[in-house]
Design goal:
Blueprint (H helix, E strand, L loop, with lengths): L40 H9 L19 H11 L21 H9 L19 H15 L23 H9 L19 H14 L8 H9 L6 H13 L4 H13 L20 H10 L1 H4 L11 H11 L9 E5 L4 E3 H14 L8 H17 L3 H10 L6 H14 L9 H19 L83
Antiparallel strand pairs: 1-2
Helix pairs in contact: 1-6, 2-3, 4-5, 7-8, 7-17, 8-9, 8-14, 9-16, 9-17, 12-13, 13-14, 16-17
């Protein structure tokens, strides 16, 4: 029987684990109320060893205890690697700081849960079997897992009790073997689930739904670190954050392919247009003339002793109009953020990551920029990711990575002045190659982008010196007037949510409530 391991130290390495992948032997557990003869013994051992569920105390699992909605979302959150998430939600009954708050916020942000009403989540309400099917179905969609399994519900005399919004998910869950009838003719869609049953369902999900051959997250990062890709240190740092935050590996490869062509962590955009000065953007000319930008910042790294407060003051001094009256200031970081609102947000992230210091380290820069990308893709640029998911139902392919590279180029890291079809295709091809490196697969690129031969498209500053004439082109990012304003939004924090007492649950009673609107799953 196939067994997979999420992480032997999930609680200590939340940022390093996402997919269950490594062979796991039959495990022990400390629970005296789940003997080896218990039907769920193996499943309970699996979820315990993999950090998905623990006991109500040190040696009690409470297999017959009823599971509520807050517990289910928390288990799913752990399955996803406990990605960074705000603890603030739109649900009035989910208090910030509660043990399930981050899990609910994460699940809601990815449309895995909708709540029992627009303003309530009902975390203490018992989970129904159909609600659990819908949540797992949406999570499978979010992860890009196969959802083609199907089984007719007509064999169950109570199939008419399945709500319309949940029918497709129930057909899938039964077809995939995740849910079974409580008898040959009774499905019990409105029935509750015990802790033992939940352990069994998540065990089946991990065994059957995660595609064969997946490379675990840390191995993907190691493959990047051991590759000959340009800027591999930057790529590895960004991959670690973005994978931990739940983005599909092929989409992450699309981002990394664009980073290869853009900047490096903490680098200031070069204004050294030596051979063709007429191509220097107007905002860089302004910076050179008014802030001595070329001699002070151009091509330098912010972690080389620059004062964060001085840079922040300079950005505030430029104001929303930027250096050219249209919002552009100067490129900074691995995506060469340029517009006033985005570069201001980036430097605020630097300030937070520096933890009270006025200078910053490379590791802190990587942390801040990874959070910046993840934050933007979960807020103002959320459609970049969701539209890519919709267009690429099979996300475990180089073709999906190619499409992600193009999508990021056209909709997120937008190169100004040279966003041609050829540039888009090149970034897509690089992204597919990055994906092959991450997953240990073979891919024949349209060109060889692994060596540092100064053939990078404009913006590839990581190997260039400010005094060279290699970057005769425009800076990346939006040279435009309409920008997204993040001033009132919370910056993601770099804290791990503690779940020491999360599973100290008691049996829940009460009426069953439907978890989702009466509509088809979207």
């Amino acid at each position: 029987m196939k067994k997979r391991w999420l992480s032997a130290a999930l609680a200590l390495s939340m940022m390093l684990t996402l997919l269950p992948v490594t062979v796991l032997a039959v495990a022990d557990h400390p629970f005296t109320d789940v003997p080896q003869s218990h039907w769920a013994n193996e499943s309970v051992a699996y979820v315990y060893e993999n950090g998905l569920m623990s006991g109500v105390d040190g040696n009690t699992f409470d297999p017959n205890g009823i599971t509520n909605r807050g517990m289910i979302v928390t288990v799913l959150y752990r399955l996803a690697g406990s990605p960074n998430s705000s603890s603030t939600t739109r649900f009035a009954d989910v208090a910030a700081g509660s043990w399930y708050a981050s899990a609910v916020a994460w699940a809601a942000s990815h449309d895995i849960v909708n709540g029992t009403s627009p303003t309530t989540f009902s975390p203490n309400a018992p989970i129904t079997r159909e609600q659990m099917a819908v949540i797992l179905y949406r999570y499978a969609d979010y992860r890009g897992y196969d959802r083609s399994s199907w089984a007719s519900l007509s064999v169950y005399y109570d199939a008419d009790q399945v709500n319309g919004y949940a029918r497709k998910a129930m057909e899938w869950a039964c077809g995939a073997g995740l849910l079974k009838g409580i008898t040959q003719t009774v499905l019990s869609p409105q029935g509750t689930a015990t802790r033992a049953q939940v352990a069994e369902i998540f065990y089946r999900f991990c065994q059957t739904m995660v595609p064969e051959g997946d490379v675990d997250q840390e191995k993907m990062v190691q493959n990047i670190e051991n590759s000959s890709l340009r800027k591999k240190d930057t790529l590895a740092a960004m991959a670690r954050v973005l994978l931990a935050d739940g983005f599909a590996p092929a989409f992450v490869a699309g981002l990394l392919g664009n980073i290869i062509e853009e900047g490096a962590c903490g680098i200031f955009e070069s204004s050294a247009y030596v051979s063709r000065p007429e191509l220097e953007p107007d905002y860089l000319k302004y910076m050179d003339e008014n802030y001595d930008y070329r001699n002070t910042y151009s091509g330098q790294y912010i972690y080389d002793g620059f004062s964060i407060s001085d840079i922040y003051t300079m950005i505030l001094d430029l104001g929303p109009g930027g250096a050219n009256g249209r919002g552009s200031c100067f490129g900074l970081g691995c995506m060469q953020w340029t517009s006033y609102n985005r570069i201001k947000r980036l430097v605020e992230n630097y300030k937070q990551a520096a933890r009270g210091n006025d200078t910053i380290t490379l590791a802190q820069v990587q942390e801040a920029e990874g959070l910046m990308i993840s934050y933007e893709l979960q807020t103002a640029y959320k459609k970049v990711y969701s539209s890519w998911q919709d267009a690429n139902p099979n996300q475990d392919t180089p073709e999906a990575a190619f499409a992600a590279g193009v999508k990021v180029c056209t909709s997120y890291g937008i190169p100004v002045g040279y966003n041609t079809e050829a540039v888009q295709n090149k970034r897509g091809d690089i992204s597919a190659q990055v994906y092959a490196v991450m997953t240990g697969r073979e891919y024949t690129p349209q060109d060889d982008y692994t060596t540092q031969d100064n053939r990078a498209a404009p913006g590839g500053y990581a190997t260039q010196d400010a005094s060279t004439a290699q970057d005769d082109a425009y800076a990346t990012q939006e040279d435009c007037t309409v920008q997204d304003d993040y001033a009132t939004q919370d910056v993601p924090t770099v804290q791990d949510d503690a779940y020491a007492a999360q599973d100290n649950y008691t049996t829940q009673d009460g009426a069953v409530r439907d978890a989702f609107p009466r509509c088809e799953d979207q």
